[in-house]
Design goal:
The chain is mainly alpha-helical and about 230 residues long. Helices cover about 80% and strands about 0% of the residues. Helix 1 (about 1-30) packs antiparallel against helix 2, helix 4 runs parallel beside helix 8 (about 185-205) and helix 7 (about 160-185) packs antiparallel against helix 8. The radius of gyration is 18 Å and the shape is globular.
Length: about 230
């Protein structure tokens, strides 16, 4: 139970820190309005995971260990890859009112950033369902981890470049996967942990060293002025 409580605490830390990191990054490359969108996406992700868990409740409970691990693995991998894929999607929200072709990139961006919340919340919700008699302990771990995630993200912003924030936070999510693997073992789980580790190691050096701002931001135009 200690491993489970620690896992719930750390994945909650990673999710809140990831949310704040996204708000920081998108407010820089786009506008601060995207902070509200990220909050909406995170809540939507938690809600969607709850619906999914309720529909397939019996199957998830029968194979709790497998699905709990898979949810954590998917959360970690999607968190790692989200910022990498995001920079290849040509999205200009300023053009939405005149260019409807921007709707598809908007949906892609939202869907991409939505996934870690769905999978992370799925793992938390599944633990709540399976250990209903100990939900008070798990809920404490969830709230405690969320509080740590908020403080941690704010502290990291003072020392780490925004482009490195999410890869750094993804290390926490990977550690949760590794922690649960220590209890489960098994060939398939070992392979998935290895894949997760390789993706993490390859992604951190490839993280962009700069953030490309929207060309329609006033700050972007100001940077064109001679020094």
């Amino acid at each position: 139970m200690i491993f489970l409580n620690l896992g719930i605490c750390l994945i909650s830390t990673a999710l809140i820190a990831y949310q704040l990191a996204l708000m920081r990054i998108l407010s820089f490359i786009q506008w601060y309005h995207f902070a509200f969108m990220i909050i909406s996406l995170s809540l939507l992700g938690f809600g969607a995971s709850g619906v999914f868990l309720s529909i397939f409740r019996e199957r998830f409970i029968r194979q709790f260990s497998v699905f709990f691990f898979l949810f954590l693995f998917a959360c970690s991998v999607s968190m790692i890859l989200s910022i990498q894929v995001l920079r290849f999607i040509p999205f200009e929200p300023y053009l939405l009112v005149v260019d409807f072709s921007q709707i598809l990139p908007l949906l892609l961006v939202c869907g991409l950033l939505f996934l870690p919340f769905v999978f992370g919340a799925g793992a938390i919700g599944l633990a709540f369902m399976y250990f209903a008699e100990r939900v008070h302990q798990l809920y404490f771990a969830n709230l405690f981890g969320s509080a740590i995630g908020g403080v941690l993200a704010l502290c990291l912003m003072f020392f780490i470049h925004p482009t490195k924030l999410i890869p750094t936070i993804a290390v926490i999510a990977f550690f949760v996967v590794f922690l649960i693997w220590l209890k489960l073992k098994g060939k398939i789980f070992t392979v998935l942990v290895g894949i997760n580790f390789i993706i993490l190691v390859l992604t951190i050096p490839l993280a962009p060293t700069y953030l490309k701002m929207s060309e329609y931001k006033s700050l972007s135009k100001a940077k064109l002025l001679p020094e």
